[in-house]
Amino acid sequence: MKFADALIAWTPANYESKTAGQIKVGELLRDGQADWTKPYAMTGGAAYAEVRDLKGADATARVFIDYHHIVVRDGLDPRVAHDAFITIDEFAEALAEDIPGARDSSSD
């Protein structure tokens, strides 16, 4: 899925919550859909209108910035965050080919 459509929900690792240290990436919610983000403390990605307009290198930069904040600031395990983010095209296509989940952008 494109970053412009990716809703990211997570709970920082140090929170007192059943979802502490967990993350999920899914499609942006549409009218009438149940809000699957409610159990999580934070949302990002396409939760912000300005993200929905990003394309190319701008989208790639922002997805890696979001990943960095979630891992470094909020203490999520890098592998857990990676496994969630790998569903985002701009993330998977920017990785070295020997990283699990990396995709070649020309394979679309």
- Low-pLDDT stretches: none
**Which range does the strand content fall in?**
5-15%
Count of helical segments? 3
Please provide the count of β strands: 3
Nearest-integer average pLDDT:
94
Features:
single chain; 30% helix; 108 residues; three-stranded antiparallel beta sheet; alpha+beta
Please, could you describe this protein's structure?
This protein is an alpha+beta fold and 108 residues long. It has one domain (3-107). It has three helices and three strands. Strands 2-1-3 form a three-stranded antiparallel sheet, covered by helices on one side.
Structure summarized in a few sentences:
This protein is α+β, with helices and mostly antiparallel strands.
Secondary structure blueprint with pairings:
Layout: E1 6-10, E2 23-27, E3 42-45, H1 56-73, H2 78-85, H3 89-94
Antiparallel strand pairs: 1-2, 1-3
Helix pairs in contact: 1-2
